[in-house]
Amino acid sequence: MSGMPGWDSLVDKAATVLEAARAQGFLLTTVESCTGGLIAGALTSVAGSSDVVDRGFVTYSNAAKQQMVSVTADSLARFGAVSSAVAKEMAFGGLSHSMADLAVSVTGVAGPGGGTADKPVGLVWFGLALAGEAPEAFEHRFGDIGREAVRLKTVDVALDALLSRLEG
């Protein structure tokens, strides 16, 4: 990943997230679909991250979402994989299937194809779950800026969300 434009700044941001998690005594987990593990990759690019990162789930398929983090078939059928409901279930499932205190999840349409009028290329839903609290979700619409750009911007927003939750 090193050498990819913008990757080094993401690793720097990941280091800041790790410091904040360490200060809170939190373990982190990621549950990733459209990023395919890039958030965990950024976090674990930082030396010493093993005391903060518990694990990462790459739940690219709907079956993986169900099997690995207990997303319900009902939510997938009713709302689709790219939805608030599924992002929340992914984050909550990440906590339930790990030792983590805080989980971030991402599910979206990175492109170049696969978008619809309701769920266009560049739409990503983010989930956050903190142990003992209800999971939350928010969306970002990056636009059709290219697959890698959507994925890297998703990592950036996910790291910002973790940092905001850790510091707020």
UniProtKB/TrEMBL annotation:
List the Pfam families hit by this protein, alphabetically: CinA
The protein's name in its UniProt record: Nicotinamide-nucleotide amidase
InterPro entries the record matches: CinA-like_C, CinA_C
TM regions (residue ranges) = none
Outline the extent of the CinA C-terminal domain.
Answer: 14-165
Origin species: Eilatimonas milleporae
